[in-house]
Amino acid sequence: MKTLKEIHGQEKAIVFLKRVIASYKIAPAYLFTGIQGIGKTTTAMAFALLINCMDPVDGDGCKICTSCKKIIGGNHPDIIIIEPDKDKKGIGINQIREINRHLAFSPALERYRIIIIDPAEKMTDEAANAFLKTLEEPPPHNIFILNVRDPGELLLTIVSRCQKVPFKPLPTEDIVNLLINEEDMDKEKAKIVARLSEGSLGRAIKISKDDLFTDRVSWITMLNSVINRPYDILIDMAHELTGFGKRSATDKELKDDRIALMLGIWKSWYRDILIFKLEGKLDLILNSDLNNHLKKASAFYTVDALIRSLAVIARAEYDLMNNKNLLFLLERSLLGLKRAVKGSYV
Known about the structure:
The protein has 346 residues and is α/β, with parallel strands linked by helices. The protein has helices at residues 11-23, 40-51, 66-73, 93-103, 125-136, 156-159, 172-183, 187-196, 201-208, 210-225, 231-244, 252-279, 291-298, 303-321, 326-341; strands spanning 29-33, 79-82, 113-117, 142-148, 163-166. The protein is 55% helix and 7% strand. The protein has a five-stranded parallel sheet, with helices on both faces. The radius of gyration is 23 Å and the shape is globular. The model is unreliable at 244-250 (pLDDT under 50).
């Protein structure tokens, strides 16, 4: 587990949180905002480590006191993490009721109980309304941290009761260095993965796994074939991708993650072709190891077709984040991508 000073790329958020603790002006609820995989949960745990540390060192958790050891070991009774149940799509009202049962008592061991809701936008409407009532009169010595991609996905009344802490996408160079130093990755591979990560270290680590990095080429090949495939074959492709085929993941969360990565790769590929067609340069290309393939593929798309295709993928990404039916999502996307280039295929 990292301390606040060991977290890279989120200096403004870290400085703010340290000042909060140093000044003893601790709000009952914080809203950590930003894309997935940029350190919101890591920072929340580091914040919990420091605020309950029995002997802070240089303004950070010591990692060796009883409190720190329990937090690091994942068995501290005053650190509660609320996540969607594995067999459900969201965070339900029963999980909020469980929080309230804890709030009926003072923290068991330390000064503060930390409740992390991750991701907060996954609360059902019923759960969100129940949580709002809790936020209206928060018990003392309890701190809520809500991790959210976009505050607009939460009730305005919840957002208004939280102190916002924005997290930004990580610089590409920071991700390259972290992949090399912490993941022991080859420098050239780290550069490609970092460019594809969209500023998310978590996404970069997922992409870097050998099978996914190899699958990237297969996904791009599949994408390039869409414009020539009959509609019935595209439907078959959607079924294979969603779990009816031989290589599908069995766990829904893993499957959704894999589809999200695939859509991201498709988006990066169309983005690369678009930039190459507009600029005629390769220095801004994300998939830089596939430049020769990109040059050939660019001949088959117009700029308008690429823009329409990117819009189709953006819609698919939005629907995936909002738990739309996966099979329908992919069927519509594959058919939409074919239609996007129909009449523009030259």
